[in-house]
Amino acid sequence: MVLCAKIIKIAVDGYSSCGKSTLARDLAKKLGYIYIDSGAMYRAVTLFALQNNYIGKGFFNKNDLIANLNSITIQFKPDKNFNPITYLNNKNVEKEIRQIAVSSYVSEVSAVAEVRARMVALQRSLSENCGVVMDGRDIGTVVFPEAELKLFLTAAIDIRAQRRFNELTQQNNNIDFETVKRNLIQRDDYDKSRKTSPLRQAKDAILIDNSKLTKTEQLSIALKLAKKVINEN
Ligand code: DC
Hints:
Elements: E1 9-14, H1 20-31, E2 34-37, H2 38-51, E3 55-56, E4 59-60, H3 62-67, E5 74-78, E6 84-88, E7 91-92, H4 100-110, H5 113-126, E8 132-136, H6 139-143, E9 149-154, H7 157-170, H8 177-193, E10 206-209, H9 215-232
Parallel strand pairs: 1-8, 1-9, 2-8, 9-10
Antiparallel strand pairs: 3-4, 5-6, 6-7
Helix pairs in contact: 1-9, 2-4, 2-5, 4-8, 7-8
């Protein structure tokens, strides 16, 4: 008799820079599932909006962006370590989308209902018939309300800001800690208060505060939860 483990969907939501991507990617690798970074998609749309001057300091021509959504192609291709690299219209934009220039506008762009509808459709189509771990803000509430496992991550703001600051300075970005912290606070406020799909913890999500957890400890908690759900199903 062949026993087939159940394939499930895992939603990892939470605040900015609280380690969602790291956890989701490592969890997917352990389970042999695909990993989808939904934030990278909103960042790619934001980069497209910046490149085309639909958004900038003090202006946002939403209608122009909406009218041109059809000319955006977003793909993920694996690098040599099987980590997904984001491509916007066939160009590798993985580094560019992580810059503060994109971070400063991504909340505004991701609040547009038409942008969200398009990204949610893409997120669902990329995950059809697969075991998937997807991280974002609305995965457990909107994209996969039926997900068998939902995690909601949080951590103290100073810890999150320090992690993000370290990441950016390691990539040679010349930026100060307070700017990074301010950007995180602004994005959280914006993401929580937008009309369409605001950031909130799904009723059936498990809260993990990782302020005092190492990456390994956090992964081991999530892996235990996932294996329990997979074996129960
Ligand atoms: O996860 P991230 O910080 O790379 O996401 C960038 C922004 O995209 C975040 O500020 C909010 C938005 N986002 C969203 O609205 N919904 C998602 N599912 C993922 C990200």
